[in-house]
Each structure stands twice: as C-alpha cells, then as structure tokens.
What does this fold into?
Amino acid sequence: MTSTALRYPRLFLSLVKFEHTIFALPFAYIGSFLAVDGVPSASDLLWITVAMVAARSLAMALNRLIDARIDARNPRTAGRELPRGALKPWHVALFCLPSLAVFLVAVYQLAPIVRWLWPIPVTAFVIYPYLKRATWLSHFWLGAVDGLAPVGAWAAITNEMPLEAWLLGAAVAVWVAGFDVLYALFDLEHDRAHGLHSVPARFGVPAAFAVARACHVATVVFLALAGLVLAAGILYWVGVAVVAGLLLYEHSLVSPRDTSRLDMAFFTMNGVISVTFFVFVLADVLVG
It folds into this structure.
C-alpha cells in the first residue's frame, strides 16, 4: 500500500524534473535580495518560492502533455512518463490545475503588480512547446520565460520592474537559451527527420556552439551591466567573475567534435552556476 501511495507522487516529481528547479529558483532569490539590498521578509521569500515551484511544475507538465506524441517518437524521450503509459494525459492535465491554483494563491500574497501580470508567464508556458514545430527561435523563447524569474521576484516585493531587474532577467534569458541550444544536440537527427526546429537542426553543430558561446558571453555582460546600475559591492563582482570562469569551464567540457560530456556540462555545471552566484549576491548584500 505504501508503494502504491508513493507511486504517483514519484511519477509527477519525475515528470516535472523537480530537481531542476535549482536552475531557476536561485535567480528568483537573487532578484528578491537585490530588490531590497538585503534580506526580504520570510513571508515574501516563502511566497516567491511557492510561486516559482508551482509555475515551473505547471510549465513542465504542459510541456510534457503537449509534446507527448513527439516524445513517443524520440528514442531519448520515449521512456518518459506519458509515452510509456505510466501516466495518462488526463493525469497530467489534472496535475496542471492545482499547480496553477497554487501559483495564483502565491501570486496574490505578493505585490499588486504581479496579480495583473501572471497571465503572461502562463501564456508563455503554453506557447513554448509549439514553437519547436515552427521556428528555431524556441530556445530564446524558453530563455525569456526563465528570465522572468528575477524580474518577477523583484516586482513581487517592490511593485516595480526597474532596469536592473530587466538586466538580470536578460542575463538569465541568454544563459538558458545558450545551454538549451546545446541541449538540442541530443535530438539533432530526430529533429531533422521529423521536421522539428532548433539551432543545431537548422544551422549545424559548429553554429550551435558559436550561438551558445555568444549567449554565455552575453550572460556575463548583462550581469556586469546589472552590477553597474546597482552600484554592487565587491562580492557581487567576484560572483560575476566566478560565473564567467564556470561558463568557460562548461564550454571546455564539450566541442563540436566531442559532446560526450554534455550531460555534465548542463545539469551539473548549470546548477553550480546558479547556486554559486546566489551565494555571492547574498554575501554582498549582507556585507553591504
């Protein structure tokens, strides 16, 4: 009975890749800490966390639901919960409803501006899975959606969205877009065979690496610009330098001729990057 009771929670946690929340959540915290140049209230941090987790769960569930037929044709993704039949489409659709409800409850505990803006990310979640059917720009749409994390957190506390919040959001957007371009290498042949669009499928492997590198250079530039506007302290700048070094190391792990360590470059290093930068920002605002 215990095994049966835990089966569906485990399946849903796997469906939404709950552990990957670590990529985006630290940047929401970064936006919230920098917004007040200190430590936000426990209430604000709680509801920002709840909103982020619920929004990401909704986004991933919608992605899996909309892409179920595509995933079933792809050997890499055919073992996911929907294609293999461990979950039914109605299960996932039903899961989306409480995810949206929890997101809305959290949003309404925060600043008034986010109560008006919440349809924007939800609409973006629905649109994203369809874009790969039409354009290789889908990577940048995904980046823009994730880039809302620091902007939304900033607005959720201050009821404002100043330039520095958008610069942080831009840094996240190009960071995510860059690694999503490389992630698409896993499905290069499948995408070409089934008419799906990505930078690697459209322009080739060397071009994909060039785009990813350009995106990650832009990540550092946007973080630096945000630091200038914020008049950030020394620890913020050390954090930017560490992020630059980690991105450089990440790109040293893979090349157009060797993608064998792509998993490490993504899922290990990107988690390290987001958490590490948050630690430096936290230290900076506490010291300052």
